DUF4362 domain-containing protein
Amino acid sequence: MRNLVLIFSLILVIAGCSAQKEQQKNNLESSMNAVFNYKLNEIEDVHIDKVSQWLDNARRTGEEGQYFTFQDNTEDYISSYVYRKGYSNYEVSFIYDPNDTSSKGKVHVTGISKNPTDDKFIQIKMINDLSVLFILSDESLKNKLKLK
């Protein structure tokens, strides 16, 4: 009987720890979405006309591999649209370094899936803070980290 109680108690402790870790993960994801999130091929309703015109011009005049950006600031958020001619998917990373006093963070964007017949753009929505830097790169962050 004592062993049964001990086993049951151990199961409760393990289940409680697992639930707590899952809740922490959800809280972190929720917090990050309030700071930074991105969507492939989506336009905010208030930006449809401006972004559609910008995107048509970028597709018509750009060369393959060339990056284009469009930003619209509101009081709370910056909506940025990034297009790289000839690419249909993107790697988007938010980098935060608490030791970097010159910026609150960096957004690293790389076109990763070449597809000249079905290229797409990415919408990045983040807190309106002028100290956040955008890095448009030819090399994915994953590859850059492998080299170090």
Observations:
- The chain has a mean pLDDT of 77.
- Residues 110 and 140 are 6 Å apart (CA to CA).
- Residues 2-35 form the longest helix (34 residues).
